[in-house]
Amino acid sequence: NPCGREQVFGMLVASALSVLMSIGALLLMVVFMRCKADVQFKQLILVALEARTKPLVNCLSSLKLVDRKRFVRQRVLVGLREMGRSFMYSKEGDTGLVFRVDDRNVVHVAG
Fold it and tell me: Whole-angstrom Cα distance, residue 79 to residue 94?
């Protein structure tokens, strides 16, 4: 037998890990697609994740490791002059865009 016991054992471990990773990737893709398609499922997943990570977040915030400046909301005023002839903005007053403001107070369109 050209293969030793260690090599056979290594091949078995590698093949078992590849099967487990394939199953994990499949489950992750299913959850991702379900979150994209089903809003209620996404909310349930987010509530479950928040419940699981809340003690860790509380611990980090008590240690002052969380930067509060990142979570500050800023108001970006957009008027008719900037929007031009947008039907959605003129009808509902909503642009449908998400803006991000960086540390230099430069506004970027994020979505």
Answer: 10
